[in-house]
Write a structure and sequence with these properties.
Cytidine_deaminase-like, 3 strands, about 50 residues, alpha+beta, catalytic activity, Guanine deaminase
């Protein structure tokens, strides 16, 4: 598993553990650098977090 898939899996596990949106995780990568992670702030709602 590559590092970006591991980040997405970690996000999914947090969603399960916190009962916050379910088992969903994603990371958007540009030129080998994570540039965005979706943040689930509750059932049915989401926002995005942009990285450096």
């Amino acid at each position: 598993m590559n590092e970006f898939m591991a980040i997405a899996l970690e996000e999914a596990m947090e969603g399960i553990e916190n009962d916050d949106g379910g088992p969903f995780g994603a990371v958007i990568v540009q030129d080998g650098v994570p540039c965005a992670l979706p943040l689930y702030s509750g059932r049915g709602s989401r926002s995005s977090s942009t990285g450096p």
